[in-house]
Amino acid sequence: MDKVFKISVFGLKPNEQNTLSSIFKLAASRNNKYAIVSATERETADIILVDADDANAMNEWKNFSVHHQKTPVVKVTKKVPATVNEGEVYLRRPLILKRVLDTLDPVAIKTGGIIIGGDVIIDIPSPLPSDDTTSDNGVKVLVVDDALAIRKAMDINLRRFRVNIDLAETGEEALEYTEKNIYDIIFLDVMLPGIDGYQVCKKIKSHKTAKNTPVIMLTGKDGSIDKLRGKMAGANLWLIKPVEPDELKKVLEQYLPGIVGG
């Protein structure tokens, strides 16, 4: 399943536009693709890139956005502000492949398309929850995965159930979270930099306050030996990534009955 996201550019210099085009060509083997459209086609754009360091470009974009407020915007800048308003997305110069794709992929989630975590394809069903959705049911969830795309996808799908979510990138960070918080359920990637998921699970289950917390292991492969290791570490369940929304719902219904509506 391929998805091409149209990118409209406001104010970037020709050499930077060429750099972006080269990056998008290098990433053409991904299921998630990007392509720059001409100024005459910008009304069809899925994502806008605007040069935040260029006053003329910012003014041009603001005039355009009056009638296109729903198109997500990424602001390209040499220095990201110390304080970023909620919903703002910045892409720091220089424009390098990993930085560009890591910035655009989470934005692409909110268009209702697909995102990529390595070779993983994740379908995000529409409509997406609004950014002002509040979590008021008291349920607290921890998601641990070193792939940004996976964390963002889990975040969006879990927010549908109005839960409070913490996101961790490493096992060490996950353990810091569990030392300070009590979670109702934890989604834990197996392969993590540093301490792996099995070690993290074992440590979590050794805590008096967390030993009964359901730990759902996440993996990109289905292996009996890995499942055995997970079980020995204290894992409650094993899910293959990408986690389908329906599978996620079933897990929540199993371990947190009552929070899933209709």
Provide a descriptive summary of the structure in words:
It contains 8 helices and 12 strands. The chain has 262 residues and is of the alpha/beta class. The strands form 3 sheets. It has a 5-stranded parallel β-sheet with strand order 2-1-3-4-5. A 5-stranded parallel β-sheet has the order 9-8-10-11-12, sandwiched between helices. The protein has a two-stranded antiparallel ribbon with strand order 6-7. Helix 6 packs parallel to helix 7. The protein is elongated, with a radius of gyration of 20 Å.
Biggest sheet descriptor = 5 strands, parallel
Number of beta-strand segments: 12
Q: What's the arrangement of strands in the largest beta sheet?
A: 2-1-3-4-5
Residue windows where pLDDT falls under 50 for at least 5 positions? 114-135
Task: Give the SSE string.
Answer: EHEEHEEHEEEHEHEHEHEH
What is the fold's blueprint, element by element?
Elements: E1 3-10, H1 14-26, E2 32-36, E3 47-51, H2 55-65, E4 73-77, E5 90-92, H3 97-109, E6 114-117, E7 120-123, E8 140-144, H4 148-159, E9 164-168, H5 171-180, E10 185-189, H6 197-206, E11 215-219, H7 224-233, E12 237-240, H8 245-255
Parallel strand pairs: 1-2, 1-3, 3-4, 4-5, 8-9, 8-10, 10-11, 11-12
Antiparallel strand pairs: 6-7
